[in-house]
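Re: that backbone. Tokens:
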């Protein structure tokens, strides 16, 4: 046995804390504690009596003990029942089991008050034999139906329905009559119907079929198809009811699939719009083919990562969820400053030479990718704030992820802010005048050279904002921008150079088109088809949806 030393790694402590947080502390009666200890009694009759007692008096709090029992991780140490927790690293190269009090879930301490770890399992471990494992597993299934964790409870209820376990129907019915919260009640009703469609009386089967058809749940279709395939009871009335229910479910699921495709297309389109806004400024208004635009988005993503790490390492844990409020302006500022420097050092020498700007910015993209790879490595993940975790269930099987909803709202606000800047500010006025007639604007005192730099910085800053939200749902890597830059160019060309309305319609339209084609074709073929459709469209309208009337037309 080994006692953890003071220099144990922070990693092991974090894992142990996560383990303890998942095991809610609870108090057991002495009778129930003794019953659990009796699970290791050599007398078979005493063990069988213990199972009966646990069935009557037990609740979800003893599930961790039962799971340790069937896993061979339970030990009776002179009347103290202990659980061997998952191995953690206590010293370099050595991983050991933490000992937890089975009755409280707290670490077992040595006389000096330090947690006890052990390197190997004891030879006196209590474990269920092959026959009793079935009994214990059934007991866990029943107790899980009343689990104190709502998600685990719902999962157990759903599993009971999926198995069509008729023995659990009375328990489910009793819980359904208790008027629990809606999520639990809905799961109970659906599982009961799934069980009754197979094991119920004729009236129960008819009622269950109608109920499952009205809910429209994809999970409810499984027992209905099973009943249809087995021709339940060979009863024509039941078969008609089952078929009608399946027809309703299929119709509802098609509608749900269409809505989800719309939502996915809007989510993808929102990011493309935000990316293309910056590109529309640089490419559509300045005539610069910026092949490094995706890399400025990547800079925004890694800026968000750095901000999150600063909050995680150096600030109190309670304010970590607010790091995104700092990440957004930081991502815009870093990307904009990087763009301003690149415009001063490179782009300003290449205005009016599209081919040279294409090659120069392509080389710039390679430099940025390799620089970030040297600093950060390849693939990283960012922990999103708790605000963006979870989903919003609008209807049965219609669930919208919170992070995707936020991205849509965020991109809409950024688009509105960009419009206000271009239409309502002095910078926007100078930008528009420079684009429409550069020589006249310069003769009237407009600092066109400064406007060019600020315009390029604004475009790259918008790309940084797009990069800031991508880590909320995906991993980041130095090459991530290359997957978006081609789509962004397509949006700008499709919508019309320098047109905000064209960017919005083109981005959202391309997002919808991509998400509606992907289910029928592989991603690569879908992308090729979308590109082909855009080429055909441009043969009809070469200038895009909203042709530009700025200096690019005059040239």
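Recovered sequence:
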């Amino acid at each position: 046995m080994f006692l953890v030393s003071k220099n144990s790694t922070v990693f092991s402590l974090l894992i142990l804390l996560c383990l303890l947080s998942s095991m809610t502390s609870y108090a057991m009666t002495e009778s129930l504690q003794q019953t659990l200890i009796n699970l290791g009694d050599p007398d078979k009759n005493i063990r069988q009596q213990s199972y009966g007692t646990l069935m009557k008096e037990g609740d979800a709090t003893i599930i961790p003990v039962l799971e340790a029992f069937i896993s061979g991780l339970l030990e009776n140490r002179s009347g103290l029942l202990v659980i061997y927790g998952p191995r953690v690293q206590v010293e370099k190269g050595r991983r050991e089991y933490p000992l937890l009090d089975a009755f409280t879930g707290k670490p077992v301490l040595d006389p000096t008050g330090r947690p006890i770890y052990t390197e190997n399992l004891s030879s006196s471990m209590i474990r269920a034999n092959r026959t009793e494992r079935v009994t214990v597993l059934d007991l866990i299934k029943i107790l899980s139906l009343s689990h104190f964790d709502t998600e685990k409870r719902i999962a157990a209820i759903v599993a009971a329905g999926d198995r069509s376990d008729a023995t659990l129907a009375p328990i489910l019915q009793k819980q359904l009559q208790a008027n629990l919260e809606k999520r639990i009640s809905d799961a109970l009703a659906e599982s009961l119907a799934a069980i009754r469609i197979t094991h119920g009386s004729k009236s129960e089967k008819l009622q269950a079929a109608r109920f499952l058809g009205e809910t429209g749940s994809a999970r409810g279709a499984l027992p209905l198809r099973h009943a249809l395939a087995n021709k339940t009871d060979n009863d024509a009335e039941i078969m008609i009811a089952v078929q009608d229910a399946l027809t309703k479910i299929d119709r509802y699921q098609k509608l749900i699939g269409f809505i989800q495709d719309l939502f996915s297309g809007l989510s993808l389109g929102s990011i493309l719009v935000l990316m293309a806004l910056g590109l529309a400024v640089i490419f559509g208004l300045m005539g610069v083919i910026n092949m490094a635009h995706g890399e400025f988005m990547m800079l925004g993503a890694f800026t968000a990562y750095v901000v999150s790490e600063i909050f995680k390492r150096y600030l109190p844990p309670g304010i970590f969820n607010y790091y995104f409020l700092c990440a957004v302006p930081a991502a815009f500022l870093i990307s904009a400053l990087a763009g301003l420097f690149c415009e001063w050092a490179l782009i300003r020498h290449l205005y009016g030479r599209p081919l040279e700007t294409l090659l120069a910015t392509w080389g710039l993209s390679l430099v940025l990718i390799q620089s970030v790879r040297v600093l950060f490595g390849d693939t990283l993940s960012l922990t999103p704030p708790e605000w963006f975790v979870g989903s919003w269930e609008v209807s049965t099987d219609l669930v919208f992820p919170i992070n995707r909803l936020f991205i849509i709202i965020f991109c809409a606000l950024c688009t509105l802010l960009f419009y206000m800047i271009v239409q309502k500010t002095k910078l926007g006025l100078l930008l528009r005048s420079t684009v429409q007639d550069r020589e006249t604007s310069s003769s009237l005192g407009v600092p066109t050279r400064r406007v060019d730099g600020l315009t390029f910085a604004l475009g790259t800053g918008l790309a940084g904002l797009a990069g800031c939200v991508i880590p909320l749902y995906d991993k980041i890597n130095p090459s991530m921008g290359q997957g978006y830059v081609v789509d962004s160019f397509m949006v700008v060309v499709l919508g019309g150079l320098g047109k905000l309305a064209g960017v919005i319609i083109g981005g959202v339209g391309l997002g919808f088109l991509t998400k509606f084609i992907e289910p029928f074709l592989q991603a690569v073929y879908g992308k090729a088809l979308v590109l082909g459709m855009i080429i055909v469209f441009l043969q009809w309208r070469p200038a895009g949806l909203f042709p530009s009337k700025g200096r690019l037309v005059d040239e």
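Confidence is low (pLDDT under 50) at residues 1-26, 550-555. Residues 149-234 form one domain.
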